[in-house]
Amino acid sequence: MTTPMGTEVLDGFEEEPEKPRGKKAKELTGRSPTRIAFERLRKDKVAIVCAFFLLLLVLIALFAPVITKAFGVYKDLDDPNAPTPSEMTAGDGYPLFGPPFEPFTWDHPLGIEPQTGYDNLALLVYGLRTSLEVAFLATLVATIVGVSLGLVAGYAQGWVDSVLSFIIDFFLSFPFVLGALALAPIMVSRFGGSSESLSKAQFFALIGVLVFFGWMGLARLIRGQVLSLREREFIQAARVIGVPTRAILFKELLPNLVAPIVVAVSLALPGFVAAEAGLSFLGIGLSEGTSLGKTINSARNYYDSYPLYLFVPVATVMILVVALNLLGDSVRDAFDPKTRR
Amino acid sequence: MFGFVVRRLLSSFVVILLASFVVFIIFYLGPSNPAEPVCQAAGGRCTDERREAIEKNMGLDKPVLEAYATFMKGVVAGREVTVGSTAYPCDAPCLGISYATGLPVYEELKKRIVPTVLIAIMGSLVYLVLGVVIGVFAAARRGTMGDRMLVSGSLIVSSVPYYLVCLLAWIYLTQQTSIFPATGYFPITENPFTTIKGLFLPALVLGIATAPTYARFTRGQMVETLGDDYIRTAKAKGLNGRGVMMKHALRAAIVPIVTIFGLDFGALLGGTIFTEFIFDIDGMGRWGLFALRSPLDLPVITATVLVGAFFIVFSNLIVDLVYGFLDPRVRLG
Q: Does the CA dihedral A284-A289-A292-A296 come out positive or negative?
């Protein structure tokens, strides 16, 4: 692969001039730009702290069923063993056990949701799960769509490029929140027959909406990169010796686009997490099922009487998004050859 | 120049037209039955015959293109809209009749667009001024402790989701303490002073939450410009530091900032939805959001999406046109 890395390769020479020849050559070929970036990232303290928090949150989300089982709490009250709302909440809607009026209990470490009687810990871990699931899937699909369309637009030129660029600009002219707002009820009225299929429909509708408004930035970026890469000698050489277009796109161009893609993905993830929680907060995300944004919305008016109920999901979303954002920023710095350190 | 303006105007017009068509199709074909909400809103039992009658009234039995043509004709010339069993006159520009209130959407839109525009203007003024000032200061003191603190601080602030900032501001500044007056929209025609007072905090929060992004961007642009040769020349010929900073460096650095500002402002006009929702301001975003409640008010949602798209396209156009004046190097072919 003819990766244009120039000066970075020479670093190996200067660092270890003493080593025997064979080993030196190995060192040279081994240090791809991606590896250099990861080495930089490992030395970045902010990145390490953020990565630690993220790992913790991802583990909590992954082991949500284990955690709820360990504490003996239930995610939803459909569970035959789960208590009914009237067993958990008083007439005024406030919980009978735990905060805000009763002392702390290990049965419900984070308290109980007023009115519904759900356990807050279960809501939190499953909400986190939803957030991460939606964000990861949306990022994955948006990246695939964005990269493929960007590759095609940049490489094809001519009318294909014009049409794709117009589509990108056209999509960029739709207001995101309003668009989500418009698409949500349509998806639901189309696919939402029963409660079961409704929650599935909402889940995929949400991802669909996020992808719908999330792929253009990356497509534009990739198109720009490809426009300059396609004039490079190695691409021209590949074309001259008759490498099929598909191979040029995926074997020659794509490996050279790893850095911008990784950076774009790491900056897109926090955006999708924030967007998911934000849409649910507005009540246009997932109305069935658990979501941190939904909990924040219903907890909004309990800021005074039951702060724990509101501030735990708020803090969780904040930590998650801030950690992802800071990590994304570190990743961008690490991949940017212009950053001085 | 003239050719460029005409071409740009035409392409913007095409985008708007296409956007309106897409939005119309989404609402025409999207829901399992657009007549359903009307039928339910009318009250009483929703029998099959009634639903069919409503579908016929709404023109749902006609092909899409014909229905779109009727809709567009209404926008240009006005038409009569039948909702349920009543026919409403709807003058141009007719965007339909709200199912919930029975009033023309355009009339309601006119009322609700005012607070949204006010928030957008006030908020964006705050973040533009604050962001540029902080950015210039940081760039002038590049590498010092203060600069580093500003950069990392602004990174953290801009990482926090906006609606959480908004929510916390609402709780701490309006509910638990009374530092700021009650928020909300009071008609500007009655007392402009109370209007500004009611929107002051929301705009301030919007401004402060967005300012760090602008500060970082301004700093980046300034640092780049300050490295240019002509800045060194200006300093060498003995101009004072502030003059070089303001007249020479900022003048060049402001061009991309204005570009980003224009695009953001357009997006903002279409969606100060979180601000409106949290601070309870009866603006366009909140209106569109509440139209989702039963009965689903499709004409209202269509109108808000269209207006939002219009603002974005329009601000793109303005930015492109202004660009040529701000940056004399740009040659518009």
A: positive
For residue A214, give the DSSP letter.
T
Helices (H), chain A: 7-15, 21-30, 33-43, 45-62, 64-71, 85-88, 120-156, 158-172, 176-191, 195-212, 216-229, 233-240, 245-247, 258-282, 292-299, 307-335
Residues of A in contact with B271 (CB under 8 A): 175-178
The verdict on pTM exceeding 0.80 is yes
Higher pLDDT among residues B59 and A300, named by residue? A300
Interface of B with A in 13-32 (CB under 8 A): 15, 18-19, 23, 26-27, 30-32
For chain B, the domains span 35-94, 106-330
Task: Give the burial class of B107: count Cβ atoms within 10 A of its Cβ; 0-12 exposed, 13-18 middle, 19 or more buried.
Answer: middle
- Chains A, B: CB contacts within 8 A come to 116
Q: Which of B84, B12, B19 is nearest to B309 (CA)?
A: B19
- DSSP secondary structure string, A89-127? B-TTS-BSSSTTTSPP-TTSTT-B-TTT--BHHHHHHHH
Contact across the interface for B27 and A182, Cβ inside 8 Å: yes
Task: At B317, give phi and psi (nearest 5°).
Answer: -60, -50
List average pLDDT for each run of 10 residues in chain B, which is 333 residues long. Answer: 82 86 77 65 67 70 78 79 71 78 84 89 93 91 86 87 90 80 74 82 91 91 88 88 84 86 84 86 87 77 86 87 75 55
Give CA–CA dist A22/B74, Å, rounded: 79
CA-nearest of B87, B88, B82 to B103 is B88
Q: Is residue A308 classed exposed, middle or buried when 0-12, 13-18 and 19+ CB atoms within 10 A define those classes?
A: middle
**Whole-angstrom distance, CA of residue B29 vs CA of residue B44:** 26
Nearest Cα to Cα of residue A214 among A310, A130, A149, A133: A149
Within 8 A of B163 by CB-CB distance, chain A residues are 278, 281
Token pair of B18, please? 């296409």
Which of these, B161, B149, B108, lies nearest to B301 by C-alpha position? B108
Whether omega for the bond prior to residue B256 falls within 30 degrees of 0, making it cis, is no
Please indicate if any CB of chain A lies within 8 Å of the CB of B277. Answer: yes
> Is B312 within 8 Å of A296 when comparing Cβ atoms?
no
Of B245, B48, B309, nearest in space to A169 by CA = B309
| Closest Cα in chain B to A325 | B159
Q: How far is Cα B197 from Cα A168, in angstroms, rounded to an integer?
A: 40
Domain residues of chain A, as ranges?
A: 126-335
CATH class of B106-330: mainly alpha
Question: Average per-residue pLDDT in chain A?
Answer: 80
Q: Please indicate if any CB of chain A lies within 8 Å of the CB of B77.
A: no
Q: Provide the CATH number for the domain formed by A126-335 in this structure.
A: 1.10.3720.10
Distance in Å, alpha carbon of A257 to nearest chain B alpha carbon? 25
Q: In chain A, whose CA is at the least distance from the CA of B263?
A: A173
